[in-house]
Write a structure and sequence with these properties.
The complex is a heterodimer of chains A (269) and B (284).
Chain A (H helix, E strand, L loop, with lengths): L1 H36 L11 H8 L13 H34 L1 H14 L8 H7 L3 H26 L3 H9 L4 H39 L4 H10 L3 H29 L6
Helix pairs in contact in A: 2-10, 3-4, 3-6, 3-8, 3-9, 5-6, 6-8, 7-8, 8-9, 8-10, 9-10
Chain B lengths: L1 H11 L4 E12 L2 E13 L4 E5 L6 H9 L6 E6 L2 E5 L2 E2 L6 E4 L11 H11 L5 H14 L15 H13 L5 E5 L7 H18 L2 E6 L2 H7 L2 E5 L6 E6 L14 H23 L7
Parallel strand pairs in B: 3-9, 3-10, 7-8, 8-9
Antiparallel strand pairs in B: 1-2, 1-4, 4-5, 5-6, 10-11
Helix pairs in contact in B: 3-4, 3-5, 5-6, 7-8
The chains are: A mainly alpha (269), B alpha/beta (284).
């Protein structure tokens, strides 16, 4: 009897949560509309949500970018490919580095001070060097996108390894493990929840750095699209670019979260 | 000659643990601390030995030395005549003396049957399939077949402990080292665990080194109960428990049990008072 009750309660809770979320978004859009419509302060300079939607869905958009133009998808594709290349590189290099840092004291002593010195350098400060060093435009963009994502991955993976309960490692040795068995069967799986926290952060900072890089040194992509729209005072296109970034960012983070939850299902009791 | 060799081999394979003048000194911020002083005891093959004493009296330190986790400062520990710890030497941990941990150390990322099969697989003693089959068979034997595919965090701590004991036993170790394995359990699950451990012990006859705070538990399970003195730890008293086997939790009401209980309480109480006066943690 208690079972179906608690279930329907949970369902009701969930639907009320959805409702609240929708109400919040609606309130935001309404406030935006009213502020622009009544020209409050400098909101007069902005497009209202209706004209953004109209432009976004127009077959012949006023400023050349909408759901019906190839240029729009070109920019989304360019940025997405850059982010996923950078993210893949951050994972491939960051997870092993983080494991080595957490696992071996000497690696930690050798590498960690250096990493802590390089890490605070903002991705934007890397732009000149990236452009000078990497002749290829794509490589420079991917490098800029990669760098912050790499550090987020490394640090969280390292934290994951250093916070493993030593009893697991001892138990593994008791059961006859060699160090490589401990690495594979204890260290990696135990650190995985932390690794995925790191990867989620990495995905966020990857988009963040990419757009900054594209705005400064890009010749394509969503960041470049926003900047060139700004140069031409096409405010609706700016907002379309921003909303698009919000959507692709959300979807890529959701993908990482989904994968993480599938791979670490054991931790949810 | 052949007969003698055979007899020797049998005792040699059976898990005799010798502790000879084991001493352990820690370096701490307050200077050198002597945690264990002159701990000497012979544990017979197949004996169930319980060690009781105040918290922080060095019981776990001793277990960690036998297990191969932490070195000792002086003295010697031998397993079936082979030195496994002495000053400057520590044999690495191995499946001949498996620890069951205080808070449990089943791998939460492996399901029950993979946890149990883990030892034989990494030791390459069995193929993957053989190990899984053996693990299933063990679960079947103790009536836990239905949790084979469950992840540990989904199970009660009682079931987790039972699975952890199976994970140790599948390796056919010479000795089991149990560090207050039932501490976190409520009285009812604890009593069920005692019954299970007695069953496992009486059917396998492994040497068991069992650390506990619970005097009833120590008497009910063990052949001998050692009271360890505190700061530094040393063997204060050894009590022989002559209750017949197979034992059952019902024996806690018998006259022999109660006599032993009174005797043991007296000895332990002295140590607890000493510890209390020195500001150490009380006997839990």
């Amino acid at each position: 009897m208690a079972e179906p009750d608690s279930h329907s309660l949970r369902r009701r809770l969930r639907s009320s949560q959805v409702l609240l979320g929708a109400a919040g978004a609606l309130a935001f859009v309404a406030a935006w509309y009213l502020l622009v419509r009544f020209e409050v302060w400098r909101f007069a300079k902005l497009p209202d949500p209706l004209s953004v939607v109209r432009e976004w869905t127009a077959r012949r958009p006023q400023y050349g970018v909408s759901l019906y133009t190839a240029a729009y998808y070109q920019d989304i594709w360019t940025s997405t490919v850059r982010v996923f290349c950078a993210f893949a590189l951050a994972t491939l290099l960051g997870v092993p580095t983080g494991i080595a840092l957490g696992w071996s004291r000497s690696v930690r002593e050798f590498l960690f001070p250096l990493l802590e010195l390089i890490r605070p350098i903002p991705p934007l400060a890397w732009v000149p060097l990236a452009v000078l060093m990497l002749a290829n435009q794509e490589a420079a963009m991917i490098f800029l996108t990669w760098i912050a994502a790499f550090f987020a991955t490394v640090l969280n993976t390292m934290l994951g390894v250093t916070s493993i309960d030593p009893a697991y490692v001892r138990a593994a040795y008791c059961l006859g493990s060699r160090p490589q068995d401990v690495l594979r069967h204890v260290v990696v799986p135990a650190a995985l929840p932390y690794v995925f926290t790191g990867l989620q952060i990495a995905m966020g900072v990857a988009w963040f750095s990419l757009v900054a890089g594209e705005m400064i040194a890009g010749q394509a992509g969503l960041g470049y699209m926003i900047l060139s729209a700004y140069m031409d005072l096409q405010t609706t296109t700016i907002v379309i670019g921003m909303v698009t970034l919000g959507l692709v960012g959300f979807l890529s983070s959701a993908l990482v979260r989904w994968l993480g939850e599938r791979l670490t299902a054991w931790q949810f009791s | 000659m052949a007969v003698l060799l055979k007899a020797e081999a049998r005792t040699a394979g059976a898990g005799a643990i010798s502790l000879r003048s084991v001493r352990k000194v820690y370096a701490s911020s307050a200077g050198a601390v002597e945690a264990i002083a002159d701990w000497t005891l012979e544990i017979a093959p197949g004996e169930f030995l319980a060690v009781v004493g105040p918290s922080g009296c060095g019981k776990t330190t001793l277990l960690n030395a036998i297990a191969g986790f932490d070195p000792i400062t002086a003295g010697e520990i031998a397993l079936d005549g082979t030195t496994i710890a002495s000053a400057g030497y520590l044999a690495p941990p191995g499946a001949d003396r498996v620890v069951v941990f205080q808070n449990g150390a089943l791998f939460p990322w492996k399901n029950v049957v993979d946890n149990i099969a883990y030892g034989p697989i990494v030791q390459r003693r069995m193929s993957h399939e053989q190990a899984l089959r053996a693990a299933h068979a063990l679960l079947e034997r103790v009536g836990l077949a239905d949790v084979a595919r469950a992840f540990p965090l989904k199970l009660s701590s009682g079931v987790q402990r039972r699975v952890e004991m199976l994970r140790a036993l599948i390796n056919d170790p010479k000795a089991l080292l149990l560090d207050e394995p039932f501490r976190a359990l409520d009285a009812i699950s604890k009593s069920a665990m005692h019954e299970e451990l007695l069953r496992l012990y009486e059917s396998t006859q492994k040497t068991i080194f069992f650390i506990t705070h619970d005097l009833d538990e120590a008497i009910l399970l063990a052949d001998r109960v050692v009271v360890s003195a505190t700061r530094p730890a040393r063997v204060k008293r050894v009590l022989h428990v002559d209750l017949p086997r197979p034992r059952s939790p019902l024996m806690t009401a018998s006259r022999e049990f109660l006599e032993l209980r009174a005797q043991l309480t007296g000895v332990v109480h002295e140590e607890a008072e000493k510890a209390l006066r020195r500001g150490e943690r009380e006997l839990a």
